[in-house]
């Protein structure tokens, strides 16, 4: 039995990384030669989202409980002992897990194998891949662009590199949608200005109201921008409803009755919520970020790409068109569903991961040079100031170009 340990934090389950890992734990349960366990780190001061996000008895779910007042070296030693039980560790964004896994390798252990999963076109994942390249056995990227840039971070080393897109459960056929008009709009995700730019929903709703375009916007999720977004949208008085975050097992109810899904981010990896929506025939209306979207959304065929700098005018135009042409909306929804069936089914992702893991274990482990030391990441802090939510996106991009010219913009 090959044992995979994918590490998350108890307050980080609502994003794409958490949903992905939990779905993989389900997919590998029951008769597989691979056990994929999602290990959740939790302490007394963080929200434990597992209490309502997953059903009791969710397969292959485990916990690492700790006191935030513990000494860091003791915490890292305890976590290293837990990781040592696995054959492969995926630290994801959990910096303490990166440190603990690297300590094991620095001590001469050849297992667990360490794999960097590049979930997003973001400095955090590239920095982690670069800093731990000497002990990385593998790198998996969720998009072609993330894979190319992660490869650049591994120069001089030879981890097994693979691009494996996320996979999602797909119904046999897209559900029957409500009549149009109005166009049923959806946002499902983190309510944050950092990356997701949810404040753009305010001018979008204002323009839809001003132009008399029939719509309804349902917002699922939570986050630091929720209170301000609720206040600003309530002032407009439009048909907008907030529903909070939806449990993992109820996502079909979120997507099935909606026509169009909005995502106005300034960067992504491969947006899992968009994949899940497309599986249910929801047409993506998304900013043309450079990672994931070019492979997933073909303009006017499986959805629509919007300008990153100013998406609101084009989004308004597209919604107006779809409100007038329900037959086009239906056709796009069927094509979006077909795209996921052919390229992004959960079963395809499981098969690709199985092949990757088998190849990984057949290779010799990565052994760091004697001079290499485990990077200090300061617990759950950020390894780069470019990751800080307060860092303006334009400034972060400019600094990245200086530090890593090959990454572009």
Residue share in β-strands: 15-25%
Mean pLDDT: 91
CATH class of the largest domain: Alpha Beta
CATH overall fold name of the largest domain = Rossmann fold
- The rough form would be described as globular
Tell me the CATH superfamily of the largest domain.
Answer: Glycogen Phosphorylase B
Biggest sheet, spatial arrangement of strands: 3-2-1-4-5-6-7
List the domain count as a whole number.
Answer: 2
By secondary-structure content and strand pairing, the structural class works out as alpha/beta
Tell me the distance between the termini: 43 Å
Helix content: 25-40%
What is the tally of beta strands?
Answer: 13
Return the CATH architecture of the largest domain. Answer: 3-Layer(aba) Sandwich
Tally the helices.
15
Instruction: Specify Rg, calculated over alpha carbons.
Output: 21 Å
Largest sheet: 7 strands, parallel
Uncertain segments of ≥5 residues (pLDDT<50)?
A: 380-391
- Helices and strands, in order, run as EHEHEHEHEHEHEEHEHEHEHEHEHHHH
């Amino acid at each position: 039995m090959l044992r995979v340990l994918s590490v998350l934090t108890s307050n980080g389950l609502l994003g794409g990384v958490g949903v992905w890992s939990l779905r993989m734990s389900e997919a590998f349960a029951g008769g597989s030669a691979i056990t994929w366990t999602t290990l959740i780190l939790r302490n007394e001061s963080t929200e434990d989202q597992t209490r309502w996000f997953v059903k009791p008895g969710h397969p292959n779910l485990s916990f690492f409980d700790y006191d935030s007042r513990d000494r860091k070296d003791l915490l890292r030693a305890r976590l290293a002992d837990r990781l040592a039980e696995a054959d492969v560790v995926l630290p994801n964004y959990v910096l303490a897990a990166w440190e603990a896994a690297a300590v094991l390798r620095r001590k001469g252990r050849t297992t667990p194998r360490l794999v960097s999963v590049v979930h997003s076109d973001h400095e955090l994942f590239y920095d982690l891949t670069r800093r731990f390249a000497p002990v990385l056995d593998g790198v998996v990227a969720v998009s072609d662009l993330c894979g190319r840039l992660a490869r650049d971070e591994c120069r001089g080393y030879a981890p097994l590199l693979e691009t494996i897109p996320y996979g999602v459960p797909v119904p046999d056929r897209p559900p029957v949608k409500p009549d149009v008009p109005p166009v049923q709009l959806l946002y499902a995700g983190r309510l944050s200005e950092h990356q997701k730019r949810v404040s753009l929903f305010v001018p979008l709703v204002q323009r839809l109201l001003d132009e008399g375009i029939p719509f309804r916007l349902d917002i699922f999720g939570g986050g630091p921008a929720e209170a301000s977004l609720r206040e600003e949208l309530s002032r407009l008085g439009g048909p907008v409803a907030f529903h909070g975050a939806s449990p993992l097992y109820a996502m079909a109810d979120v997507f099935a009755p909606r026509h169009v899904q909005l995502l106005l981010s300034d960067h992504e990896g491969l947006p899992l919520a968009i994949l899940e929506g497309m599986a249910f025939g929801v047409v993506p209306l998304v900013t043309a970020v450079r990672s994931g979207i070019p492979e997933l959304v073909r303009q006017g065929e499986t959805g629509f790409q919007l300008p990153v700098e100013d998406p609101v005018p084009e989004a308004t135009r597209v919604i107006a068109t779809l409100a007038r042409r329900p037959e086009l909306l239906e056709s796009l929804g069927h094509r979006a569903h077909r795209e996921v069936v052919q390229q992004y089914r959960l079963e395809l992702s499981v098969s690709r991961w199985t092949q990757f893991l088998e190849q990984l274990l057949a290779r010799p482990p990565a052994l760091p040079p004697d001079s290499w030391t485990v990077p200090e990441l300061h617990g759950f802090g950020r390894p780069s100031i470019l990751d800080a939510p307060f860092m303006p996106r334009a400034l972060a991009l400019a600094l990245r170009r200086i530090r890593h010219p090959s990454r572009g913009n």
